[in-house]
């Protein structure tokens, strides 16, 4: 059996005891007589102790909420990237319908893909750039790794030397300052596609 002792504050709670005999005590204050809760709610030291306890309890919940929010944002960003890629590639295939393959100049057909001059995996900034993406046959895009040398020769004919030079400059900048995609700039790309005329 737990021995009863007088409720008298100790340590941080000195001076808050009522003197009654109590079995359960914290900082020398009885829990059953209400002195401990009185100390927590009405003294500076008690309020600090209570606040620390609340924060300790809330931290795991806040960490979980932060993790869930980050996962949701990442999921939304992944979806936005996929949606933007789909729309940009569909736009390019429609824009270049009837044009020969940018690399080998084979005649256009329904299997043409949206091929990148600067690879989308390596050049983040140019991933959705319309001057960097053109109609390309399945063979060049998938089996010849983009057929880069021929792509380079024909790209200047297709977009002109000025736009080609700008694209090359952007690729050099990309190596040092790659684009960070977010929901806002991806949405802007999709909105800009609607303004382009095919």
Query: Which spans of ≥5 residues are poorly predicted at pLDDT below 50?
Result: none
Continuous helix count: 6
- Gyration radius (Cα, Å) is 34 Å
Percent in helix? 40-55%
Question: Biggest β-sheet, characterized?
Answer: 2 strands, antiparallel
Order of strands, widest sheet: 1-2
What share of residues are in beta strands?
5-15%
Summing up helix and strand content along with how strands pair, one would put the structural category as mainly alpha
Mean pLDDT: 90
- The ordered string of helix (H) and strand (E) elements is EEEEHHEEHHHH
**Span between termini:** 88 Å
Number of strands: 6
Shape: rod-shaped
Structure commentary:
- The chain has six helices and six strands.
- Helices cover 54% and strands 8% of the residues.
- The protein has 198 residues and is mainly alpha-helical.
- The mean pLDDT is 90.
- It has helices at residues 35-42, 44-95, 138-143, 148-159, 161-176, 183-195, and strands at 5-6, 21-22, 25-26, 29-30, 113-116, 133-136.
- The strands form three sheets. A two-stranded antiparallel sheet has the order 1-2. A two-stranded antiparallel ribbon has the order 3-4. Strands 5-6 form a two-stranded antiparallel ribbon.
- The radius of gyration is 34 Å and the shape is rod-shaped.
- The longest helix has 52 residues, at 44-95.
């Amino acid at each position: 059996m737990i021995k009863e002792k007088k409720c008298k504050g100790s340590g941080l709670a000195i001076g808050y005891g009522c003197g009654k005999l109590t079995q359960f005590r914290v900082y020398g204050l009885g829990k059953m007589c209400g002195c401990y809760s009185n100390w927590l709610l009405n003294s500076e030291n008690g309020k600090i102790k209570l606040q620390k306890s609340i924060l300790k309890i809330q931290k795991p919940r806040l960490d979980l909420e932060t993790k869930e929010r980050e996962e949701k944002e990442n999921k939304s960003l992944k979806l936005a990237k996929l949606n933007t890629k789909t729309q940009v590639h569909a736009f390019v295939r429609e824009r270049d319908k009837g044009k020969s393959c940018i690399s080998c100049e084979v005649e256009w057909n329904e299997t043409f893909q949206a091929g990148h001059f600067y690879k989308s995996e390596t050049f983040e900034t140019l991933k959705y750039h319309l001057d960097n993406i053109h109609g390309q046959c399945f063979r060049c895009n998938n089996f010849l790794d983009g057929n880069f040398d021929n792509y380079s020769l024909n790209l200047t004919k297709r977009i002109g030397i000025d736009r080609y030079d700008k694209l090359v400059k952007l690729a050099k900048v990309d190596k040092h300052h790659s684009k960070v995609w977010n929901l806002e700039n991806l949405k802007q790309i999709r909105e800009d596609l609607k303004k382009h005329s095919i």
